[in-house]
């Protein structure tokens, strides 16, 4: 069998009489331990490789997450900048809108004030127009009255010039209003010289008292008739503004201007 170390047989398997091979318990324990260690080493290496793969995957995901975070932070910064920009633009738009509204309100107030001024001016012009039309109508009526009086004076003058032995009184300028009439000639006149047959009064000779008593004129009107004598025709009472047209119409058939 050769040389064997001491105690070697203690570890070697033995063969029984029945021909069975029995392993020494020490060898069996050694084999079990060796197998266990081998299997444990294989499992640890596989887990280690898996752990490395997971670590690399985690690193990759972490890098991706960081990149996404950086991109998101950049987007947030951009959005904040845009928000600030839009806020400034919105504030500028609000300021411009307020300026426009203020200008519109100011222009509206000015327009309303100007409209009121124009309305007042239109009312004043309408009032002036009515006054002018009234003056025009009055002037027109006065002109018509003067025309009729002139025609009447001309007719009376023609009648006097055509009457037999008729003579016109000498032309004398009428005294100014308010002046004292010149004294009548010193020739004596009969007591009834102020009236002619038929109850007609001669306004060139009658006194103011007689005009008041016989014609029913007010004292101031009678005084004006006396102060503005002589009269060539009866219509001069109106032409010289001595008596109103209404008063003249009432007394024209009861007076005369014959010398």
Brief synopsis:
This protein is mainly alpha-helical and 259 residues long. It is built from 6 helices and 5 strands, in the order αββαββααααβ.
Keywords:
DNA polymerase, domain 1; 4% strand; three-stranded mixed sheet; 259 residues; mainly alpha
User: What is the share of helical residues?
Assistant: 55-70%
The CATH architecture of the domain at 174-182 and 189-259 can be given as: Orthogonal Bundle
Question: What name goes with the CATH superfamily of the domain at 174-182 and 189-259?
Answer: Photosystem II 12 kDa extrinsic protein
Mean pLDDT: 76
- Gyration radius over CA: 73 Å
Shape: rod-shaped
Side by side, the strands of the main sheet go 3-4-5
Separation of termini? 211 Å
Number of strands: 5
How many separate helices?
A: 6
Strand content: under 5%
Which parts are unreliable, with pLDDT below 50 for 5 consecutive residues or more? 165-193
Q: CATH topology of the domain at 174-182 and 189-259, which one?
A: DNA polymerase, domain 1
Describe the main β-sheet briefly: 3 strands, mixed
- Please trace the helix and strand order, writing H or E for each element: HEEHEEHHHHE
* Quaternary status: single chain
- Overall CATH class of the domain at 174-182 and 189-259: Mainly Alpha
**Coarse structural class:** mainly alpha
């Amino acid at each position: 069998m050769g040389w064997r170390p001491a105690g070697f047989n203690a570890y070697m398997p033995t063969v029984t009489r029945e021909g069975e091979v029995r392993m020494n318990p020490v060898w069996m324990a050694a084999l079990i331990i060796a197998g266990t260690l081998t299997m444990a080493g294989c499992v640890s290496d596989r887990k280690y490789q898996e752990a490395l793969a997971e670590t690399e995957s985690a690193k990759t995901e972490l890098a991706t997450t960081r990149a996404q975070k950086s991109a998101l932070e950049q987007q947030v910064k951009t959005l904040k900048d845009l928000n600030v920009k839009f806020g400034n633009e919105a504030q500028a738009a609000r300021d411009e809108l307020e300026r426009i509204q203020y200008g519109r309100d100011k222009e509206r107030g000015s327009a309303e004030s100007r409209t009121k001024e124009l309305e007042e001016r239109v009312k004043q012009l309408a009032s002036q127009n009515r006054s002018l039309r009234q003056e025009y109508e009055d002037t027109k009526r006065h002109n018509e009255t003067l025309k009729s009086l002139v025609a009447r004076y001309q007719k009376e003058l023609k009648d006097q010039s055509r009457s037999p032995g008729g003579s016109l009184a000498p032309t004398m300028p009428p005294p100014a209003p308010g002046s004292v009439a010149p004294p009548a000639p010193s020739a004596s006149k009969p007591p009834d010289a102020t009236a002619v047959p038929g109850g007609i009064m001669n306004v060139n000779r009658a006194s103011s008292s007689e005009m008041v008593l016989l014609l029913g004129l007010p004292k101031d009107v009678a005084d004006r008739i006396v102060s503005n004598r002589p009269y060539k025709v009866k219509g001069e009472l109106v032409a010289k503004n001595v008596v109103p047209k209404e008063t003249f119409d009432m007394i024209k058939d009861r007076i005369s201007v014959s010398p």
